[in-house]
Design goal:
By secondary structure, this protein is an alpha/beta fold. The protein has four helices and seven strands; from the N terminus they run E-H-E-H-E-E-H-H-E-E-E. The structure holds adenosine-5'-diphosphate and magnesium ion (MG).
């Protein structure tokens, strides 16, 4: 692993800065999409982290939680990636539902950067060596971020 960290952020601004830092550590995998699994309970800040990452990558449109859509994609311009995909596996019983959404195709494309909330629910579909981000609600606006 090239990069790992454990940090506590005390407010949203600090949290967003950490997301920016994390984005800078990413490099296209070459043999498939770059996959980032977000682990943590409801309210830990997974969606907020993806929103901050999207902003850092220049996505102007509002990144909303894909909980009810399961998968949303955003075009990226002039960066290492063509597409940012945001998956929320919370409502999935298993990875089978994602197969119908062409998720495997998205996973195979090195031009894609894929964030997966509740990645543990579709672990069998994700590359075993995907980047892992563990988020934890500490109190109030305090969050703990561990990058594995
Ligand atoms: P998750 O996707 O893990 O369920 P969310 O990103 O939706 O969590 O965040 C849950 C709530 O906590 C939201 O109201 C969000 O605005 C707030 N929140 C998340 N991260 C932070 C943070 N770093 N600082 C302050 N509030 C946060
Ligand atoms: Mg969420």
């Amino acid at each position: 692993m090239l990069f790992s960290m454990h940090v506590k952020t005390v407010n949203l601004k600090e949290f967003q800065k950490e997301a920016e830092k994390f984005i800078r550590t990413l490099a296209p995998a070459g043999n498939g999409a770059t996959v980032v699994g977000l682990y943590g309970e409801l309210g830990a800040g997974k969606t907020t982290f993806v929103q901050a990452a999207a902003k850092a990558l220049g996505i102007a449109e509002c990144v909303t939680s894909p909980t009810f859509l399961i998968l949303k994609s955003y075009k990226l311009s002039a960066k290492s990636y063509k597409l940012l995909c945001h998956v929320d596996a919370y409502r999935l019983k298993n990875s089978g539902e994602l197969r119908g959404l062409q998720f495997e195709k998205l996973l195979a494309d090195p031009g894609n950067l894929i964030f997966v909330e509740w990645a543990n629910r579709i672990a069998d579909m994700l590359p075993t060596d995907h980047r892992k981000l563990f988020l934890e609600f500490v109190s109030g606006d305090v969050r703990s971020i561990t990058v594995g």
